[in-house]
Amino acid sequence: MLQAGIEALFGRNRDGHRTRRIFHFRRRHHNHDSNHKNEHDELAKFFLDKPNVEKVLIHDSTFAFGSMQGWRSTMEDRHKHLIPLDKHSWKSWSYFAIFDGHNGVDTAKTASEQLDIHLLNTLYHMSDKKHKSEQSSDESRGSSQLDLDHIHDAIKQTYFELDKYLRKVLKDESGCVCITCLISPEKIYLINIGDSRAIIISNDGHVLAHTEDHKPEDPAEQERIHEAGGKISKSCIGGVLRVENQLAMTRVLGDFAMDKHIVPPMADIVEYSRNSLASFIVLACDGIWDVMTNEDVALFIIHRASTYKLEDIASQLLEECLRRRSTDNMSVYIVKV
């Protein structure tokens, strides 16, 4: 009953986005039986009576980050950025990542603390293996000095290794999705697991590249899950599709109570060459994408880029998503290319 009640909060707006409808459960349905009241009391724990609109805003000359708890009763997003990625071989690289937690925050918190460490180990291993005799470890390195035939596979394997680490240290059944961006002097790598998303936009508001969400609606994901022995279904009429009647995303870190063959930490990578067309990179959790399309976000930023500072644009974007009735946690990076 609880799951069906949660599904009742979900609908679709005319643009096809998921929209959550908030109800003040404790103030309604006084004449229903005690079981119905208990169900609504349980549902009310997921949401506040009014949104928490306090923002976290971080910025420097090249990026801005903004987050807001919104209607959710807890803030389960985490984030991290490193500029530079390190002070030695990868001092010309940058790193940005958002971790959208569910069922608790431990997975998102631990993953945010560990992912960059695992990625750096992978990059050092690849580079040293190929160039150990050619350059010192303190020399800055670019994508062209890596084995590009294997970099995608190595990065993907890094997320599986991170997931193994999480299994050893987590003490709850939480999980998270993740959107990551690595920026080298020559390349931009957008790396995603789940339904957080990244886009690269031009200075006239065109979306040049973007990640694809890992959602149960995706036919390829449906085929993969069915082959792994899993199932996708709706728990109630009008509800969203869920994996094993639990997750509304198909790839995750954590969630060890589930079969990881069905919901693996399997990243996809979009590689984009840095060029004069690219103006901004945007990374955001689904609290943003639930109510705005890629094009909506691109135009929102570009229309303000010549007038406002990046941190002001990030702040205004959070407010706009709340106005559009996003009821999830919201986090966003806006990065100058």
From TrEMBL:
Question: What residue stretches are annotated with the PPM-type phosphatase domain?
Answer: 62-337
What Gene Ontology molecular-function terms does this entry list? protein serine/threonine phosphatase activity
SUPFAM superfamilies in the record: PP2C-like (SSF81606)
Q: Which one Pfam family would you cite for this protein?
A: PP2C
Q: Which InterPro entries match?
A: PP2C, PPM-type-like_dom_sf, PPM-type_phosphatase-like_dom
Q: Which CDD domains does this entry report, sorted A to Z?
A: PP2Cc (cd00143)
- Which segment of the chain is annotated as a signal peptide? none
Give the source's domain of life in one word: Eukaryota
Q: What is this protein called?
A: PPM-type phosphatase domain-containing protein
Organism of this sequence: Rotaria sordida
Lineage, top ranks? Eukaryota, Metazoa, Spiralia, Gnathifera, Rotifera
